[in-house]
Amino acid sequence: MCGITGWIAYDRDLTGGAERAALAAMTGTMACRGPDAEDRWAGPHAALGHRRLAVIDLPGSSQPMSAVEDGRTLAVLTFSGEIYNYRELRQELRGRGHRFRTAGDTEVILHAYLEWGAAFPTRLNGMFALALWDPRVQELLLVRDRLGIKPLYYCRTEGGLGTEPAAGPALLFASEPKALLAHPAVHASVTIDGLRELLSLAKTPGHAVYSGMREVRPGHLLTVSRRGVSEERYWALEAREHPDSLAVTVATVRSMLEHIITRQTVADVPLCTLLSGGLDSSAVTALAAHQPGHERVRSFSVAFDQHERDFVPDLMHVDSDQPFVRALAEHVGTDHTDVTLATTGLMNHTHRRAALHARDLPSGLGDFDISALLLFEAVREHSTVALSGEGADELFGGYFWFHDPQTVRADTFPWRAAIEVYTQAGLGDAPLNPRLLDPALVSALDLPGYRRQCYRDALAGVPHTDCSDPLERRMREIGHLHLTRFLQLLLDRKDRMSMATGLEIRVPFCDHELVEYVFNAPWSMKTHDGREKSLLRAAVADLLPAPVLKRPKNPYPTVQDPQYTDTLRTALTEVAHDRSAPVNDLLDTAAVTRALAPGAGFKDLRYATELVLDLNTWLRDYRVGLDLS
To answer: Rounded to the nearest 5 degrees, what angle is found at the Cα of 392, between the Cα atoms of 386 and 393?
Structure first.
C-alpha cells in the first residue's frame, strides 16, 4: 500500500543537505503507512520519498523506482496502492518490446507510462495515488484513482525552506497532510471556508480544509512543469442507456464480482475479509471463500464488550451483527475471529488522539473512528491485507434514505435530510453537531448556505440520459451524489484508520468497471424485489444463508455502554475548566454549562461533545492557526 511524498522546485537544487533533511522528515511521518522499508530519490529539481508496505513481490519492487536505459534515467515513480490488472498489462507490454526485472505492479506502471505517455492512467485498474517524474522533459505527473480510494494531497509554496527569502515556486505532495506539514514552509492554518468544509458532512472534490492545500481530485491527473500546474480529468461517470434485461444484469453483476474478487485476492502476504454480517461484507467473504485454489479465508468482525446487554434497536441499527456474522462464517467455512473491544479502550484518550492523528483532522465521530483503529490493529496481527464492503450501499442503493420519499424529495444531500429524520425522531444528535459552538461563529459559518451551494455544485455535475421518468432521473442524481460526495468520506476514514496500523484494505465494490455498469442500471432494476440492493442480493443469492440474505441494512455499530457517555461528560467538564484549552475560544459557554448541569440529559449532545474534544486536541497538537475573519 505505502505512503508517498515529494518535492518539485525548478529554481533550486534538491540534492542539497537541507533539502534532503526536509524530504526525510516528510517521508518519516508516514512510517505507519509503510512499516517495511523507506527510501528516497533526489535529482536537481525533483525529490521523491517512499514508505513501503510490502504486499506483492516482497523481495523486489522497492521504491522510488527508476526506469533506466543505457545509463539514462527515463522516469522515476513513487506509488501507493495496488494495480489489479498488472499481470495482463505486463503481458501486453512485453508484446510491445518492454522487459521487466521485477514481478510486481510498480514496474508495470513505469513501463505503461513509457508506452502510452500521460494516457497511461486509463489503462490501470486498481486503487492508486502516484507521482511520476520524467527528467527528460522535467515534468511531474500526480495521478489519483477514479473513485478516490487512495489519498493524494499537494500544496504550492513560494518560500523555499521557510528560513530564507522566497526561492521561487515549488510544489509538495504526499499521501497525507501530516507529511506536507512536516515541511518547514508549510503551516497548519485554516480559514472559515476550511472550517465550513470540515463541518459540512459532504466531500467537496479537491478541498483539503487546510489553507493552501489541495487534494488531487478522483479520476484526475495533475501535471507540474516549468510552465506551471495544470489538471485534467481522465475519468468520470457517464450516463449511458442500459440495454440489458434484469436477468442479464444480475448475471453480469455476479460475473463482474467474481472477476474482481479473483484479481483482488492476489497477495504475497496473509489476506482476510472484514465481516459485519451484512449483505455487502458477506458477499465479499463468500466470493473470496469460493476462489479455487485458495486457502481457507480468514474473517474478522468487531464487537463491543456487553453489546448484547446494551443494544437497543433504532431507526438505523435494527439488530445486532454477531448472530449474522456467525451464520455467514459457518455457512462458507471461514476461519473467523471476533475482535471484542472493551469500553475502557474506546474511552482511552491515547486512542482518541491516535485516531485524530491518523486523519490529521477532527472528525467528531468518536468511537466510530476509535473502534475502527483498534479493530485494524487487531487484524494486522494476523493479516496484511483485508477485503471490505465499502461502496455497495452507494452503488446499489442500500441506505434507508434511498427509499424514503421525504429524503428523496429533499432539496439537499439525501443523507443530510436523513439526519433531520433521525434527530427529529429523538434518536440523538448527529455527527459534526455544532450545538456547543459559539452562536456568532455558527452564524458566520452559515453551514446551511455552504451545504446548499455544495449541493447545487454537485447536482450540476450529474450526467443524464434522455429518460423522461422523473423518479429515474432523481435516483440517478442521488446515486451520483453518493458516489462523488459521500463515499469519499467513508473511503477517507477506511484509508486513514487502516493505514495508521499498516493494514491494506481493498474495496471490491469500488472497481470502476462495476461502478460504471451498475450506475447506469435503472432504479426499477435496483429495487426489482421491493427491497434495497436488489441487484446485489440477486447476484449472490446462492452464496449466502437465508438470514444474511434477507437482513436489512445495518450501519457500522457504535458503542452503547453508558460508561462511554459518562466519559464524554467528564472530558467536556475538564475542557470547560481548562483555561488553556484552545477550543474554549470557539465554544458557547452557556450551552456547555447547561449541558454539564446536574440532571441534564446528554443523549442529544454525544456528537456535539465528540466534536469539541476533537477540535481541542487538533488545535493543540497541530498548532492550528484559525483565520475566521
So the answer is: 125
Known catalytic residue at 454 = no
Query: From the CB of residue 339, how many other CB atoms can be counted at a distance below 10 Å?
Result: 17
Question: Hunting for cell 526506469 — which residue is that?
Answer: 67
Tell me if the pTM is above 0.90: yes
Note whether 24 and 67 are same-domain residues.
yes
d(CA 561, CA 550): 28
* Options 2, 32, 454, 510, the catalytic residue: 2
- Model pLDDT, residue 592: 96
Spatial contact of 161 and 173, defined as CB atoms under 8 Å apart: no
Assign residue 159 the CATH number of its domain.
Answer: 3.60.20.10
pLDDT digits (tens, 9 = 90+) for 42-101: 999 999 999 999 999 999 999 999 999 999 999 999 999 999 999 999 999 999 999 999
How many domains does the chain contain in total? 3
**Residue 439 vs residues 81, 211, 370, 511: alpha-carbon distances, Å:** 43, 24, 29, 43
For the chain, residues with pLDDT lower than 50 are: 159-168
Residue 260: per-residue pLDDT: 98
CB 170 within 8 A of CB 154: no
3-class SS letters over 266-305: CCCCCEEEECCCCHHHHHHHHHHHCCCCCCCCEEEEEEEC
**Distance, CA of 589 to CA of 340 (rounded, Å):** 37
Q: Nine-digit cell at 180?
A: 506536507
Cell of residue 395, nine digits: 452503488
Helix then strand count (H, E) for the chain reads 26, 19
Residues 187 and 329 in one domain: no
Contact by Cβ (8 Å): 144, 216: yes
Encode pLDDT of 175-214 as tens digits. Answer: 999 999 999 999 999 999 999 999 999 999 999 999 999 9
